[in-house]
Specification:
The chain is an alpha+beta fold. The protein is built from 40 helices and 37 strands. The strands form eight sheets. It has a nine-stranded mixed sheet with strand order 16-37-36-35-17-31-34-33-32, with helices on both faces. It has a nine-stranded antiparallel sheet with strand order 19-18-30-29-28-27-26-25-24, with helices on both faces. Strands 3-2-4-13-5-11 form a six-stranded antiparallel sheet, with no helix packed on it. Strand 2 and strand 3 form a beta hairpin. The longest helix has about 40 residues.
Length: about 1200
């Protein structure tokens, strides 16, 4: 393939690091501990290479292998206390102590464990298929015959020479040797590594540039000495030994596995790290394990059941021991049928203590039915199906980007219904991260007539009129063509009118800077000639587009130049001017600015610089402050309007000064020491000083659609919302007003270090004094804020806390963070400004641990990952900043507004379904298990089971599992429309009213009551009289079948009474379980007596023909459910819960069609009055209180309007 001669952007970063370093001493660490890797390029089969014993390039992300699936999965299953208990039961069932057969004990456990293993195996198969697809991808590898051949990724070896072509992924970590560009530059997309969508620029060493054809590798031999495998994506230390010379390597020459080659035809590279040694795989650690609150409480409930089981077993064993000891009294046998005078040790009065111990183990096995064996696997299945419902919800599908919601984990479904606090990023989460150039200030004059959304919200709040035609979309009353990234309108500037301004020279330089000071790549469509821009950030693109509209069109970039079609104010024509790029000082989050050093056509060396006002004003020279005061005023106005601002300035250098600074900059960039960045920054400081201020830009990041309404609804649900942003305090406050986070009448508590006292201390330069004074100031402000929260009268005031990042650093210290949390919890809204990614994570941890309630973090960028992983639930926005946040999240959505439906609908449903499901599990098992205890007590604690072995074993697996699973998947207390209509309903989850200890213990107590009624009613009803026409009385086998039938009827009918939304599946599950019991009894009882033992033809010949069986079953089932039915009726009528009131409202709306509107509105309002006025412990959210106050009037209006219609 011919090499590409087109030059694009080789020296954008002036990679003189490709030259031989003069700082060879800094390579001394290579070869030492942690830097021992040797790579023999183009010699992977040599003896020296093979003895290194590096791993191959195949990867495996599976949890199991064929050999480890069974042992590893069994270990995971039996780590659960309940499963381990059932395993011990199964082992003990092989001893004479067992009250049932060993097979009936082992098979149910085996079924549950097998289902779980199959589920995990299927998940692992998907991962294995992905691994196979990746490992079998192909790439061209240089072979001994002098040609490149397609080779599977998994067969790559360290030292192989690869040829990677455009839009292909790099299969391993490579050293860049050359590319299709003459200067060895290539463009790389690293979205899979760090979530960033902008292209990174890499460049080969200058010494390897002549190796530029396939045939050039015939005699190529080199040795790489470098660091060992590690997790650092952004550093690399090593050297290349080539032609007996050593050359330092830096991250600019390293191509990482998982990144993609873009805008470059091909590159050559030598494999350095393979497989699991690559940096991306070294970083592939599992996200922190998260368990839902419900799952953690389930473990506690199981322990309570274990405790009650041990108490019952101990009590029964003590009574049994005493009774056994007294079985023979003066030669008389009390329990003669046990033959205590001629018995085994289990009933021997002479060895009663030992018999009691054996009895303890017997009943310990017998009472295992108190523990629901299928609890965990059933809840896991229900959660997986619930996740599927979330994924398939069309209301959370973002059609514009073709992105549905995606629940990436099923562990936290119930936590979605219990969120107390939301911590949200702003840019890209609340906003679109799609910037539009709307205003600017040049030469002290403000330009731009468009009113941003935040400013419009401020005007509405103040009652001011919004003039027509100020949205930038219309001109002379007609809609104009919209330019993406540009929404500016000002007749003084547009259409070249800026040349008539008094300081047109400054504006000219301002536009020049916009057209030159950037790292944007132009992409020219050869068919149409249209130029589009690929920028590192939306801001950059907006600036270049604005410059083009103003007459300064950036149209070409070569390896050393930038070309701009400039509007000439003298000729009125566009003239192409070329600027030679001498260097670029990159933008970083620490520098908060970037600079481009260029030489124009007149030979002048210019430094064009743009950056944040916090770092730019201090770099303005004494002679460059002419417009400082008006510019400061303008950027404050822009910040108040919610706009993002940058300061633009420039400097002219003479050649001698530039040459001196450039020499120092080259030396700093060639350094590979640990303080390389510090050295570069020291030189940059000398370059970026004595600047001349030109003005400031203002771009708008619009709010996403539906954000204000979503926040309003979430706040009405009682959810507290915190915003963590990197914006200035003024910008964040006004964004807060625009998105309804802040409201008129809220009192703001500002915590900041921008005070004259602190500034005076900072000028002194004493770091210890600065830290002490700053901390004291923060403590004082927090104390004053807490004092302000104390109510001063009958009317309660609402507060909003706004704190900046500088103050947050002190407020998060161990001895202060408690005060911060107390103050924040007393406020309706919290905004943290200028916060770093680490501070976001620390604030999230503070809220999670300090409140003990469920926290949810939502963000869209790589800087939000720490926050997402720290929170109980992490929500990733699949927006414009890559997929890093999504990959670290628990649930992914495309727009912030979908959070409303995710929480208020799916969260509420999942919480309620799982709460009912778990409570029902314990209820049904206690109902069944306690009948065993009562029967055992009835038989003087003899360890006798009331039921047949297999009838007991199949209870949880076959006859009661499907109805509870259907309950956990399909039940709805209210529809999605009513969940959104009454957001206060969400507080059921926040307050945990459906899964608190009162409700759990109530379900368990109900189980004990039902078991007691079933046992005594069945026994007393059938105890003395004849059971059939032959006049025979019942025996153990018949009474066992009757009781078991009543248990099946009761627990299934109880679930039917608990269901709010019956579907066909639930109907089939309930009735099917009852009919399946009879079918099982019929079939099982027809088997060989050696198999069915005591159940042999019990149904056909004993119970089915007897009318008393059907009468007792019906009577006992109804009698058992009467207490629960009465309790539910009284509770629903006089002490209704939130969802029950909403159900009544819905029923009234349906049944009152055609009724007088006034009467209907009064009755429905009476229902909603209770709902609106009931106390909810949700902080003092102004939104929530406002929602409660207007709910009555709102409902009345809705009912009236519908009735009139």
């Amino acid at each position: 393939m011919a090499r590409t001669k087109k030059l694009r952007l080789s020296k954008l970063y002036s990679f003189a690091c490709g030259k031989k370093s003069v700082l060879n001493a800094e390579l001394a660490q290579v070869g030492g501990p942690g830097f021992s890797r040797l790579v023999y390029c183009n010699e992977p089969e040599s003896f020296e290479a093979e003895i290194q014993n590096y791993c191959d390039n195949s990867i495996s992300t599976t949890k199991y292998t064929l050999l480890t699936l069974v042992p590893k999965s069994l270990f995971e299953q039996f780590r659960r206390v309940a499963n381990f208990y059932f395993l011990l039961n199964g082992i003990l069932s092989f001893t004479p102590l067992a009250p049932f057969s060993s097979v009936s004990a082992i098979i149910p456990l085996s079924i549950v464990i097998t289902i779980t293993m199959i589920r995990e195996g299927l998940e692992d198969i998907k991962r294995k298929q992905q691994d196979i697809e990746i490992n079998n991808r192909k790439v061209k590898v240089y072979q001994n015959d002098g040609n490149f051949h397609d080779t599977q990724w998994k067969n790559l070896r360290v030292g192989d020479i690869l040829k990677v072509q455009k839009d292909e992924y790099f299969p391993a970590d490579l050293l860049l040797i050359g590319s299709s560009f003459d200067d060895g530059v290539c463009y790389v997309e690293t979205m899979n590594l760090d979530g960033e969508t902008n292209l990174k620029i890499k460049q080969a060493l200058e010494v390897t540039l002549p190796i530029n054809e396939d045939s050039s590798f015939h005699n190529f031999k080199a040795t790489i000495k470098c660091e060992d495998p590690n997790t650092s994506l952004y550093t690399f230390i090593g050297s290349l030994e080539y032609e007996e010379q050593n050359y330092p390597l830096s991250p600019q020459q390293i191509l990482l596995r998982g990144s993609k080659l873009r805008n470059t035809d091909y590159v050559y590279g030598a494999v350095i790290f393979t497989g699991h040694d690559t940096k991306v795989m070294q970083n592939a650690t599992a996200p922190p394990s998260k368990r839902s609150r419900m799952e953690r409480k389930m473990d506690k409930i199981v322990f309570i059941l274990f405790l009650s089981l041990f108490i019952m077993a101990s009590t029964g064993s003590i009574v049994f021991g005493i009774t056994t000891r007294d079985d023979i009294d003066n030669g008389k046998m009390k329990r003669w049928y046990l033959r205590p005078d001629d018995t085994e040790i289990f009933f021997d009065p002479k060895r009663a203590p030992l018999a009691a111990i054996f009895h303890f183990f017997t009943v310990l096995m017998l009472f295992n039915y108190f523990i629901p064996i299928s609890l965990y696997v059933s809840t896991e299945i229900a959660k997986v199906i619930q996740c599927r419902f979330i994924d398939e919800d069309v209301e959370m599908y973002y059609e514009e980007a073709d992105k549905p919601a995606h629940a990436r984990t099923s562990n936290l479904n119930d936590d979605l219904g219990q969120v107390d606090t939301i911590l949200s990023d702003k840019t890209g989460t609340l906003t679109c991260n799609s910037m539009e150039f709307v205003k600017f200030s040049a030469a002290g004059t403000a330009y731009g007539c468009v009113i941003p959304e935040v400013e419009k919200a401020m005007r509405r709040r103040s009652g001011l009129e919004i003039p027509n035609g100020t949205d930038g979309r219309t001109m002379n009353g007609e809609e104009k063509m919209h330019i993406k990234g540009f929404n500016f309108e000002d007749e003084r500037i547009m259409n070249g009118n800026w040349v008539n301004e008094s300081r047109a020279d400054v504006i000219h330089k301002f536009f020049q800077l916009l057209g030159v000071c950037h790292t944007v790549l132009p992409d020219v469509d050869e068919s149409t000639g249209k130029v589009t821009y690929e920028a590192e950030s939306p801001d950059e693109a907006a600036f270049v587009i604005a410059a083009r509209v103003f007459g300064f069109e950036f149209n070409n970039r070569t390896q050393t130049t930038v070309s701009v079609l400039e509007f000439d104010p003298y000729s009125g024509q566009r003239v192409e001017r070329e600027y030679k790029i001498l260097d670029i000082l990159e933008f970083t989050s620490a520098r908060k600015r970037m600079s481009v050093i260029v030489r124009n056509e007149e030979g002048k060396v210019l430094v064009f610089c743009k950056g944040a006002d916090s770092v730019m004003f201090e770099r303005i020279g004494r002679n460059g402050r002419e417009f400082e005061e008006p510019t400061r005023n303008h950027i404050n106005e822009y910040a108040d309007a919610g706009l993002r601002t940058l300061i633009l300035a420039y400097r002219e250098l003479d050649m001698d000064t530039y040459n001196q600074l450039n020499k120092k900059l080259r030396e700093a960039k060639n350094s590979i020491s640990a303080d390389r960045d510090k050295l570069i920054e020291e030189v940059s400081e000398k370059i970026e000083k004595d600047l001349i201020l030109l003005g400031a830009t203002a771009v708008e990041d619009k709010l996403q659609s539906g954000v204000p309404e979503c926040i309003e609804k979430l706040a009405q649900a009682g959810i507290k919302i915190w915003v963590l942003t990197g914006d200035k305090m003024e910008t964040a406050i006004n964004i807060g007003y625009a998105c309804n986070l802040l409201r008129q009448g809220m009192k703001q508590i500002l915590v900041t270090l921008d005070s004259p006292e602190i500034e005076a201390v900072e000028k002194a330069g004493d770091k210890a004094a600065i830290a002490k004074a700053s901390k004291e100031s923060i403590v004082r402000q927090l104390t004053q804020g807490k004092f302000n929260l104390i109510p001063t009268g009958r009317t309660s005031e609402t507060f909003a806390l706004i704190i900046d990042g500088k103050s947050l650093a002190y407020a998060l210290e161990d001895d202060v963070k408690g005060m911060l949390l107390q103050l924040a919890l007393g406020c309706a809204s919290v905004i943290c400004c200028r916060s770093s990614p680490k501070q976001k994570a620390l604030v999230t941890r503070l809220v999670k641990t300090g409140t003990g309630k469920t926290t949810l973090a939502i963000g869209d960028g790589a800087n939000d990952v720490g926050m997402l992983q720290e929170a109980d639930i992490g929500i990733g926005i699949s927006g414009a900043e890559g997929m890093q946040a999504v990959m670290s999240s628990d649930v992914a959505i495309a727009q912030f507004r979908y959070l409303e439906r995710l929480l208020l609908v799916h969260g509420h449903w999942c919480y309620r379904r799982l709460s009912q499901m778990v409570c029902y599990f314990f209820y049904k098992n206690i109902t069944f298990g306690f009948t065993l205890f009562l029967y055992e007590a009835h038989t003087t604690f003899s360890g006798q089971a009331a039921y047949n072995d297999w009838i007991m074993a199949t209870y949880s697996v076959f006859f009661t599992s499907l109805p509870v699973l259907a309950l956990g998947v399909f039940d709805q207390d209210v529809s999605a429309r009513y969940c959104l209509k009454f957001p206060k309903l969400y507080q059921e989850g926040v307050q945990n009213v459906l899964f608190n200890w009162k409700r759990i213990l109530g379900s368990m107590f109900n189980g004990y009551v039902c078991a007691t009624i079933i046992f005594f009613f069945c026994n007393k009803a059938l105890e003395l009289q004849a059971f059939n026409i032959d006049g025979k009385t019942v025996g153990r086998d018949i009474i066992g079948v009757v009781m078991y039938t009543c248990v099946i009827f009761v627990v299934n009918l109880y679930m039917a009474l608990s269901v709010s939304y019956f579907t066909l599946i639930q109907f089939i599950a309930v009735l099917g379980s009852v009919f399946f019991w009879f079918a099982f009894l019929l079939v099982y009882g027809s088997m060989n007596p050696a198999i069915c033992t005591t159940a042999y033809k019990v149904f056909q010949e004993a119970v089915a023909p007897a009318p008393s069986f059907w009468f007792v079953t019906f009577f006992v089932s109804i009698s058992t459910l009467i207490p629960y039915f009465v309790y539910s009726a009284v509770q629903r009528q006089f002490f209704p819960m939130f969802h029950e009131v909403v159900q009544m409202v819905r029923a009234d709306e349906i049944s009152s069609q055609g009724e007088d509107p006034e009467a209907r509105a009064n009755r429905v309002a009476a229902r909603t009055n209770w709902l609106a006025e009931r106390r909810v412990d949700s902080g003092i959210s102004a939104h929530f209180k406002a929602g409660s106050n207007i709910l009555k009037d709102k409902m009345r209006k809705i009912i009236k309007s519908r009735c009139h219609v």
